[in-house]
Amino acid sequence: DDSTPPATLSARTLPALADYITKSGTCKKIVIMSGAGISTSAGIPDFRSPDTGLYANLARLDLPYAEAVFDISYFRRNPHPFYTLAQELYPGRFRPTVAHAFIRLLADRGLLLKHFTQNIDCLDREAGVPEELIVEAHGSFARQSCIECRRAFPHDEMLRHVQAATVPRCLNETCGGLVKPEIVFFGEALPNEFFAHAMLPREADLVIVMGTSLTVQPFANLPRAAGRGTPRLLINLEQVGGLGGREDDVLLLGDCDEGVRKLAKACGWSEELERIWRET
Ligand code: APR
């Protein structure tokens, strides 16, 4: 029955972790926590990598500091830098990565309890991960509305503005507020859906953290919610967020696509992963 704690295992090695996933019979609920690092191979820059990260390449927007481009108080004063950037980041031009395909594979196998993502690119949805299994902790470009009266703004209108890099205004003449995609800016609250599920890692049989620096709260606290004895796998270029500090933590330091390919191979899922990725 589900109340028995998952088999504690010192999964210091990938084969031991793969056996836990495929043979123990007690790894049924996997929670994934991801960030920009799972989309860089799709051509979307992450935020904080030196040289290639977005925050190192915004000089042309003449911002007081890099994060201002996603700061709600700065946006109110000057929405132009965001709308210049939105033209480059807007979904529709990028293809899901192998890491997204791996998340889809887990969902197909009924092993995905929830995918918490900080990304706003919707590439997990495009890879076919069921929407009800995704928590977009920092929102996404999927919807847009007026930041004053909250009135929704039509998608086709938004596309026009994004392509022209012009600033859309509320359709309510009496309001005239700025329209913004429903992505969470610094200074805004995360969606209720995040808090409604934030304790879910406690029920996980396995936590996988991928492609994130775990520097932004409250998302960065999620891995800590994993129960004792629940293995936590980090797939990331660098060690982050205290991962590796617990006996059952497993570190797969390196490229996300390579890391999920290694794990899929150890689980005997290589064929399935490549087929899913080819179809995205
Ligand atoms: N493979 C593995 N790791 C990678 C790869 C890759 N191909 N590319 C980048 N990384 C790693 C980086 O080393 C870094 O640790 O992914 C992490 C990306 O960290 P950030 O750039 O800080 O992105 P993220 O953690 O998603 O940022 C969180 O900050 O600006 C806010 O709201 C924004 O959601 C964003 C949040």
Automatic annotation (TrEMBL):
Record-listed E.C. numbers: 2.3.1.286
Positions of the Deacetylase sirtuin-type domain: 7-270
Listed GO CC annotations: nucleus
Catalytic activity from the UniProt record: N(6)-acetyl-L-lysyl-[protein] + NAD(+) + H2O = 2''-O-acetyl-ADP-D-ribose + nicotinamide + L-lysyl-[protein]
Active-site residues, as the UniProt record annotates them: 138 (proton acceptor)
Cofactor: Zn(2+)
Keyword Glycoprotein: no
Main EC class the enzyme belongs to: transferase
UniProt keyword annotations, A-Z: Metal-binding, NAD, Transferase, Zinc
Record note on cofactor: Binds 1 zinc ion per subunit.
Binding-site residues for Zn(2+), renumbered to this chain: 146, 149, 170, 175
Family of this protein: Belongs to the sirtuin family. Class I subfamily.
Protein name: NAD-dependent protein deacetylase
Lineage per the UniProt record: Eukaryota, Viridiplantae, Streptophyta, Embryophyta, Tracheophyta
Residues of the full protein shown: 10 to 289 of 378
